[in-house]
Structures are given as structure tokens and as C-alpha cells.
Amino acid sequence: MTHCRINPSILSADFANLQAELDRISNADAAHIDVMDNHFVPNLTLGLPVVKRLQEVSPIPLDVHLMIDDADRNAPAYADLGVDSVTFHLEASKAPVRLARELRARGSKASMALRPATPIEPYLSLLPELDMVLIMTVEPGFGGQAFLDITLPKIRAAATAIAGSGIPVALQVDGGVDPETIVRAAEAGADVFVAGSAVYNTPDPAHAVDTLRNLADRAANETPA
Ligand code: DX5
Ligand code: ZN
């Protein structure tokens, strides 16, 4: 039985009131924090000092998604803040094994993200080093983009490899997740779902979280593993 998790992205929240915005999703499994540096992606959001305060006030764990260059040098400081998980992009790391081990050594879960065009197959041997794999279902950089169905075979391949490995690695998807696309992603084997606009661009974000989780749980558990 798969228990699907919903991690709302605060990228679509009110940046002038982030503490209140976190309180509105206290029924979610974690809050997804998108850190962008205007180099790895063409957008700039927030960095260490803001994540530090969010970690202090958040009612739920933080799932930090780093869309920043030179992850080997820049990611460990986020783990030092005590956040639940730190996700670095494979494309921004020269030494992903060393980085994953460093994140874990600093007390955070280690997670590796792949852009839509990055294949999973060459990196399956890294699974024992990871707590989560993030398959981007849009090109990273902005909220509100359409889910890319071309990523579904990669989600399936990753889910099959994880199940076959026997290692408890979570499989996250991020980008364009809504009540329709979450069903396809869950059927393909994802079990952690990031949703920004589908949660915050609704009148009742907590209700949106519950709806998405129910849809994902139903889809995940109807499909034979
Ligand atoms: C995009 C970010 C996502 C974004 C998702 O690069 O990584 O987390 O907030 O937003 P939606 O759910 O609106 O596609
Ligand atoms: Zn994200």
C-alpha cells in the first residue's frame, strides 16, 4: 500500500506573508521550498537566510529544492539548517555521491533532481546514496507550467528500478501537478507530489492538499505494482 505525500510549493504563495502561507498548509506532508539563483534557472527566489527563518517557523518539515549552480559547494549549508531534505540537481553537481553523503552526514535527507531531458538509467547505481529522486515534470524555473507527459516513461523506469533495488527511495515529481496529472504520475509510480499553483491558487489550500492526496492514493493503489 503506497502512502502518497503532498508537498506544496510556496513559489505560488504570497512572498510577503510566508509564515502565514505555511500555516495554511499545515496538513501537508512537507513544504517545498524552491531556491533559484538566476544562473541554473532564469529566475531568482530566496536563499539561506530566508530558508533559515522558514525552518524556524514552519509547522511541517521543509523539502528544499535547490535550482542553483555549483551544488557541491552551495548545498551543504542548507542541510546545516536542519531541514528535512535537500534536493540538488544532478546537472549542477560534479560529485553527486560525495555531495549526497555530505548532506546525510549533516543530518538531512539527500535527494537528487533530474531535468526533463536528463535520463535516469546512467545514475541508477546512485540509489543507495539517496533518500529521494526528483523527476522534474516541467523545465525548472517557474510555477504554473504544463505537466510534460514525455517524462512518464522516466517516472516508470525510476519506480521499477527503486522497487527492484529494495532500497526505500522516495520518487518525487514537480511541475504541472494538478488533480488530473497527479493521477498519471501516481499510476507511473511517483509517491511524492509537489504542487504550487494547484494548491495556492485555490481558495482553500488545505482542502486542495487533501484532494490531491486522495487522488494520488487511489491511483497509486489501483495500479498493480
Ligand atoms: C519549478 C519549481 C516548482 C514549481 C511548481 O521550477 O521547481 O516547484 O513551484 O509549480 P506548479 O505546481 O505551479 O507547476
Ligand atoms: Zn520545485
Task: Note down, in words, how this protein is organized.
The chain has 225 residues and is α/β, with parallel strands linked by helices. 35% of the residues lie in helices and 18% in strands. It has nine helices and eight strands. The chain has helices spanning 18-23, 48-57, 71-74, 76-79, 96-105, 152-165, 181-188, 197-200, 205-222, and strands at residues 5-8, 31-36, 62-67, 85-89, 109-114, 132-136, 170-174, 192-195. Strands 1-8-7-6-5-4-3-2 form an eight-stranded parallel sheet. The protein is globular. The mean pLDDT is 98. The structure holds D-xylitol-5-phosphate and zinc ion. Residues 9, 11-12, 32, 34, 65, 138, 140-145, 174-177, 194-198 line the site of D-xylitol-5-phosphate.
Question: How is this structure best summarized?
Answer:
This protein is of the alpha/beta class and 225 residues long. It has helices at residues 18-23, 48-57, 71-74, 76-79, 96-105, 152-165, 181-188, 197-200, 205-222, and strands at 5-8, 31-36, 62-67, 85-89, 109-114, 132-136, 170-174, 192-195. Strand 7, helix 7 and strand 8 (192-195) form a beta-alpha-beta unit.
